[in-house]
Amino acid sequence: MTQLGTLEDLPQDYREAMTAAGVAPLWPMMRNVLPHGKPNPVTKPGFWSYDALRPLLLRAGDLTPVEKAERRVLVLSDPGRGAGAMQATASLYLGMQLLLPGETAPAHVHTPSAVRIIVEGQGGFTVVDGEKLPMLEGDLVMTPGGDWHDHGHEGREPVIWLDVLDLPVFYYLEGSYATEGPLQAQRNRPDAALVEYKSAGLVPSRSRHQARRYPLARFPWARTEEALRAMKAYASTGIAEVDYVNPETGQDVLPTMGFTAMMLGQGEADQPPLRSCSSAFHVVKGRGRTTIDGTVFEWGPKDTFTAAPFAEINHHADEESFLIRAHDRPLQDKLGYYEERAR
Ligand code: GTQ
């Protein structure tokens, strides 16, 4: 590899003249902006135990009424970016949100998309463009960018969910903004998971039905688990994995973010290929440990952990385990560079 010139190689008066002219030499920074072979991520592996987050979140419920918060959320900060970072990886924002019985989180619409993975509680719901979506443990509930949404709670215990947003991408583009509005009128019917998209492989007849851009906004966990168990029962080797897709197109559920549910049997290990996307793993059920670039995380139910692009990931399940992996592979596919490298 050629040794490139440094800033110190240049005379002081020339450096000052460049600064005054508002320019900088590329060559001392060449390997920073274009490292060889693979990127050099700022993102570090992160781990958030639910046992640590839960009491902090409940305390936020005492300290800050929802009217003062709009969204009562603790953001999971990437250790590589440090305390206060509003992101978990370069592209993924993760936040734990609390809604107490009787509360509502007001309606708004924004450019980033949000996906909720329900962690605990009963009676919570999200309204997306007038469709009322129940939030049951493990469900994946989508709020695509540009869709009005508000949250409500008809139950008796706190409801907690994990928000996964592509907000860092929109923020980087200086394209992150929201509009507020009144609570939405709810259509008096169950959501599309219970009406139009009850069975894999069956969609409303195309001659009569105009599909929406995001036809299915809730993926009930019970169906995901059932699909994974069936595949696992007949798999000769390896873990079972399913991708969440738009039932009308078969494509990823959102333009930027993808979601994959995984089932590992008791005692089973998994060594995924090195992927160019970053990942956030949320444990729906089970126990095990995952090594990410040499850091070992012991995980249990409702814990969350992250991996940077091209991280070396080794999973081991001590018990039968179910995880949901959020990632930015759909965005990287569109940018034309998603890559998997064999190990
Ligand atoms: O529920 O609409 O964690 O707008 C961050 C921004 C949740 C939400 C977040 C949001 C929301």
CATH fold category name? Jelly Rolls
Give the strand content. 25-35%
Radius of gyration: 22 Å
**CATH architectural group:** Sandwich
- Bin the helical content: 10-25%
Strand order of the largest sheet: 1-20-17-22-14-13
**Rough outline:** globular
In total, how many beta strands? Answer: 23
Please summarize the sheet with the most strands.
6 strands, antiparallel
Give the tally of structural domains. 1
Helix segment tally = 7
Mean pLDDT: 97
- The SS-based structural class is alpha+beta
Low-confidence stretches: none
Distinct bound molecules: 2,5-dihydroxybenzoic acid
What gap, in angstroms, lies between the N and C termini?
A: 24 Å
Task: Write the CATH homologous superfamily.
Answer: Jelly Rolls
Order of secondary-structure elements: HHEHHEEEEEEEEEHEEHEEEEEEEEEEHE
CATH class membership: Mainly Beta
What does this structure look like?
With 343 residues, this protein is of the alpha+beta class. The chain has one domain: Jelly Rolls. The chain is 17% helix and 31% strand. The chain contains 7 helices and 23 strands. The strands form 5 sheets. The protein has a 6-stranded antiparallel β-sheet. It has a 6-stranded antiparallel β-sheet with strand order 2-3-10-5-8-12. The protein has a 5-stranded antiparallel β-sheet with strand order 7-6-9-4-11, with no helix packed on it. The longest helix is centred in the first third of the chain and has 14 residues. The radius of gyration is 22 Å and the shape is globular. The two termini are 24 Å apart. The relative contact order is 0.14. The mean pLDDT is 97. The chain binds 2,5-dihydroxybenzoic acid (GTQ). The site of 2,5-dihydroxybenzoic acid has 9 residues, from strand 3 and strand 10.
